[in-house]
Amino acid sequence: MKLSIITALACVASAAAFLPVLPNRMIPRSSIALKATISDTVRSIILKNTGDDPKVSEYLSSNPDTAEFTELGFDSLDMVEFSITLQKEFDLPDLSEEEFATLKTVGDVAKFIEKSKQ
Fold first, then answer.
1. What pLDDT does 118 receive?
2. With contact defined as beta carbons under 8 Å apart, do 82 and 74 qualify?
3. For 30, which of 10, 22, 39, 112 is 20 to 30 Å away at the CA?
4. Distance (Å, rounded) from C-alpha 93 to C-alpha 78?
5. What pLDDT score does 16 carry?
6. Which DSSP string corresponds to 2-58?
7. How high does pLDDT run on average in the chain?
8. Which Pfam family, an example, fits this chain (predicted)?
9. Is-contact 72 46, C-beta < 8 A?
């Protein structure tokens, strides 16, 4: 059975009516999809900061959310550069040293960013 374009558009329009709409007319993403996007972006930033090192890439693939910065070979300077990049990428407020020191894994960073965006 083929649907006409009008029927298909009517189905899409009626389905969209059930989605929540924010005051700015944006439809929110699910928190799971948002977290996945944040985690992907964080891993991408790590890869860029490490010069696309194949070992880092393999470790991140094997441990997507549990990858620890110490295992990635990050020193204090790397962490400062990483935090600056995160602030720019996600429009975050300045992070205190103490606050950033509590973030040990990619998952910790993703959760922190997700919480900051709420």
1. 75
2. yes
3. 10
4. 19
5. 44
6. PPPHHHHHHHHHHHHTTS---TTSPPPPPHHHHHHHHHHHHHHHHHHHTTS-HHHHH
7. 77
8. PP-binding
9. yes
Q: How far apart are CA 16 and CA 11, in angstroms?
A: 9
**C-alpha to C-alpha distance for 13 and 16, rounded to whole angstroms:** 5
As separate numbers, helices (DSSP H) first and strands (DSSP E) second, the chain gives: 6, 0
The Cα–Cα gap between 85 and 87 comes to 5
Q: Which two tokens stand for residue 94?
A: 């300045």
Query: In the CATH hierarchy, which fold is given to the domain comprising 23-116?
Result: 1.10.1200
Q: Cβ-count burial of 75 within 10 angstroms (0-12 exposed, 13-18 middle, 19+ buried)?
A: exposed
Prediction pTM value: 0.66
